[in-house]
Please model this.
Amino acid sequence: MDEAHADLTGTGEAANGLIRAAVGPDGRLRDLYVHPQVLGATPYGPVMEACDLPEEIKKAVNAALDDLEDKIRQSTGDLLGELGADLERVTENFERAIDQIHRYRPSPKPAAVLAPVPVRGSGS
Model:
């Protein structure tokens, strides 16, 4: 894993914020929070049925992974933009140097054209 991204964390939530997840750049789940009201007794009953819990957890984790991907893409995009500008400067300097070499280098003289030498046959 890239050290520049080691501290990045993607976060996501589901069930109206009652389930929250955080993932690291290595793709591992760093934190999972499930509010006690999700399955606990409330005056109106549980917020969701137990059978719905895994799906809601997946939604929170996937949202956290999407958030992490966006953060990495954004930070990498900034880096790539800087590298592109550096490359452009290097290319311009290189082209300028090549132009100077061509300006100060004497042009090559054309090669002498040699007349064909007749070949004598060996037959008598």
